[in-house]
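To: structure subgroup
Subject: Chain for Friday's discussion

All,

I'm putting the inputs and outputs inline so they're searchable in the archive.
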Amino acid sequence: MASRAGLKILVPGYAQWTWRQRERALVLFGSFVASLGVGVFAWGTHASLVILAFAFGTHLISAADVIRQSAFPGFGRWVPVASASAGLGLGVYAPTMALAMIFAWPGFQAEPPFDGYLINRVSYWASAPATGDLAWAALPGWRGARAVRVLAGAGKHVEWSASGLRVGGEGVPWVPPQSAALPRELAFTVPEGLALVAPEPTGRGETKPTPSCGLLLVDTRHIGGRAWARLYPIWERGLIR
């Protein structure tokens, strides 16, 4: 019984369907699912917040209707709305949004070509960026943050020669941009608190030149998390390995 009572509140239209109010149930459920799907698909945009607010409103109407129809004597018009708002907002939507903002923060580059990623903002709270990670960082000379490929962390020995880039004695699959002005040979150790990164290429016409050698040393305090999925462009969406 407890599970069915929970479904009546958590699934918009479920209670109305069981009460044979089929048209109302279909409108509530259909509106909620459609708006939730579009809102999640457009996550990170201003439109997504409006659409998700509509999904919450639909859920709120359904839950308030359940409270109103189940109560005897009735609570009036506003008590069901207030109680449903508090219960759904504090118990479901606020925790869900908080988790989304931490583990799926939508990061968009402030300058063209405006690539977007989902960022895990707690990835580097307990550990430093590792070689091969796609991180989200604020770079010197750039407005806002952007995706960078981590090539070496603090304390790693880096070598560059005609045979390519090596980190800690092992080869790293990094191809310098065509405009890079690389020295014939280079060797250094990444200082503490820094990471060696390369801005992630997009292949869609950068409007800002890459660093002269294609590499940057960035303060790890300016690395805001790990990018784990591509959000935009839409046709390139997918998990990042």
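Points worth raising on Friday:
The mean pLDDT is 84.
The domain at 106-239 is CATH 2.10.109 (Umud Fragment, subunit A).

D.
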